Amino acid sequence: MADADIIVVGAGLAGLVAAAEAADAGRSVVLVEQEGEQSLGGQAFWSLGGLFFVDSPEQRRMGIKDSRELAWQDWLGSAQFDREEDRWPRAWAEAYVDFAAGEKRAWLREMGHRIFPVVGWAERGDGRAEGHGNSVPRFHITWGTGPGVMAPFERRVRAHADGGRIRFAFRHRVDALVVEGGAAVGVRGQVLEPTDAERGRPTSRIAIGDFELRAQAVIITSGGIGGDHDLVRKVWPARLGPPPRTMVSGVPAHVDGRMLGITEAAGARVVNPDRMWHYVEGLRNWDPIWDNHGIRILPGPSSLWLDATGKRLPAPYFPGFDTLGTLRHLRQTGYDYSWFVLTQKIIKKEFALSGSEQNPDLTGKDIKLVLSRVRGGAPGPVEAFKRHGADFVVADNLTDLVAGMNKLADQDVPAIEEPALRSLVEARDREIDNAFTKDAQVTAIRGARNYRGDRLSRVATPHKLLDPKAGPLIAVRLHILSRKMLGGLESDLDGRCLRADGSPFPGLYAAGEVNGFGGGGMMGYNALEGTFLGGCLFSGRVAGRAAAQALG
């Protein structure tokens, strides 16, 4: 006897969307989650809430000329699809770009979702029109950040739960899929002891019983592997250089990839496991929520980026331009960290921190606090990191700055020589004297300020780093931050998991990060940002609707 029509494994954003869509179609759903109810929504809760839209009203109001054709050009240039396994990821990518250029915004808006009016320009690219990156700003921040993205779907799911159509199974850890006659018909595992740990905090793995649930279809929405650094290193691709010995973690430990292996063992196919997305601007959180908690700096383009030994990174590896290109370059240095060198004038205009908890103005929908970003100094959370963070050095002169940097350096890293860094900084500063320059980063800064969104709130007026009026000087030690996998369970355009021979796995669907955010890797080798949450929304919607429609 079935416990429900559909089982959804994982109560993150993709799981909430899939459950809500299936229940809207009249199906009964059990939503299974190994964490407690306080973790409903998963990683979406911690996110900045950025979404990828194409030719939106917000873009047009900011003077941005975007189009579906330009977005698809950028997507292909970034994804660089080159494998037989990219058949379905490419199909999903095209469907998603159509969605982002079409009904995505109206669909969300009808549920009460709203967008901050200034569009951000994330992942500005590798310097080629046909290459990686966003040709125009497309990063739309949700008013309310990650919780604001999650809220409409949580409301829908809880309304269905009140009506009896959705049932929650928190603290239920799935250990196996139930497969009969070649079809997925349920899940089994262990019930974990209750927890009152706050969202993101470590939870017990003590089992207090077993369970088995049955249904006509199972949708896997269990997330990625970023909380298990050993697993990240295991699939780390040679093209990105050697895996780092140390990383900070952008996700809690329960983001462990268990269901990926469990689903593969049941017969579903995993593709592109070597494609991943980790950041190079990670900070050790001075007030951590989970173990080894890292926070990403969302940088403007003006900070001088140095490797661990003080050498300047070459073009196009400027802050905010090419995440994986910069990661690949830094992994060739042999060291696990790098440096930003900047001024107080830069930090107050250009530094933002990723995460809902680091942006109380946007998360709390506090207009007065948002306006203080434009009128005043650096946002409060940024100043808190500058005061308390272990990775910040603040000094009134370059000599003291270098001494502080060397004090923070790893023992096996050669000391940064103050004369060499001074020569580098002074050479860069001389380029500021004219409106023209041969320094590609200075050109990029001036180009960015042609966009009024950047000029207003994101890019500092070009100035000399050694100008005392712009000080004090600041150095920030940057760690690699584990975050997302870009491959996963292969699926067709209905979200159905596929077997190794390409045939659909009856009764089995996938959505979200475990699905490579669609198809098994719709972003290819590179992401354009705003596509992770958007991929959860799109793939969760597809899988929930398709599974509901397929049932007899």
Automatic annotation (TrEMBL):
Keywords, alphabetical: Flavoprotein, Oxidoreductase
Protein name (record): FAD-binding dehydrogenase
UniProt keyword annotation of Lyase present: no
Residues annotated as signal peptide: none
Residues in FAD-dependent oxidoreductase 2 FAD-binding domain copies: 5-533
Entry annotated with the keyword NADP: no
Organism of origin: Nonomuraea insulae
PANTHER family attached to this UniProt entry: 3-KETOSTEROID-DELTA-1-DEHYDROGENASE (PTHR43260), KSDD-LIKE STEROID DEHYDROGENASE RV0785 (PTHR43260:SF1)
InterPro entries linked: FAD-dep_OxRdtase_2_FAD-bd, FAD/NAD-bd_sf, KsdD_DH, Succ_DH/fumarate_Rdtase_cat_sf
